[in-house]
Amino acid sequence: MRISTKGRYALRVMIDLASRKEGEFVKLQDLSTHQQISEKYLEGILGTLVRGNFLEGARGKTGGYRLKCNPKECSVWDILSQTETSVAPVACLDDKKNACKRAAICVTLPVWTELDRVIRDYLGSVRLDQLAKKTQKVRGTSGIGKDWNCEL
User: Fold this and answer.
1) Phi-psi group of 16: left, alpha or beta (phi > 0 → left; psi -120 to 50 → alpha; rest → beta)
2) What are phi and psi of 90, to 5 degrees?
3) How far is CA 19 from CA 61, 72, 88, 121, in A?
4) Is the dihedral of CA 82, 86, 87, 93 positive or negative?
5) pTM summary value
6) Which among 49, 68, 88, 151 is most buried, taking Cβ atoms within 10 Å?
7) How far is CA 142 from CA 17, 20, 33, 124, 125, in A?
8) CA distance 149 to 145
9) According to the model, what pLDDT value does residue 74 have?
10) Which of the two residues, 143 and 5, has the higher pLDDT score?
């Protein structure tokens, strides 16, 4: 399984917003600068997150984007499920109605099914508020300021 750039950026933006003052609208330009993502690309990501009810967008002078979801209830799995085409470790687990014709005799399918369960369970257990707290700690102790993001 490989998470796309869109999924990784979406997670970074969600963590960024969760680490800010609750209810604060953050302008697209500020998110773009802080996350080092082009505004055009970021607009698409934010649109996906708004459609998924993770974010709220507002126009105007005091507008921008803010969290709509509760960071204590929003998991990494929730975010990636919204932004990724698939998070299954193998293609045969992508679409149950078009399952592989060899599924009944496939000796590796149980391995992939269990791996898929482990991935979903783990990513579902990591909450946005936990990552936001880690971000605040890194920003406060590392001296790296806005450049806390990993290179993609």
Assistant:
1) alpha
2) -140, 155
3) 22, 12, 29, 24
4) positive
5) 0.84
6) 49
7) 20, 18, 20, 28, 26
8) 10
9) 97
10) 5
Q: How many Cα neighbours within 13 Å face the side chain of 29?
A: 4
Tokens in use for 92? 């045969």
pLDDT the model gives residue 142: 43
Pinpoint the alpha helices (H) of the chain: 5-18, 28-35, 39-51, 76-83, 109-125, 128-142
Amino acid making up residue 10:
A
Tokens of 29: 């330009």
pLDDT at 139 over 50: yes
140: confidence class by pLDDT, cuts 50, 70, 90: low
Please write the tens of the pLDDT for every residue from 13-32.
Answer: 999 999 998 989 999 999 99
- For residue 106, the SS3 value is coil
For the record, the structure tokens of 52 come out as 């998924």
What the block records as the tokens of 132 is: 């936001």
| Helices 5-18 + 76-83 axis angle, to 10 | 140
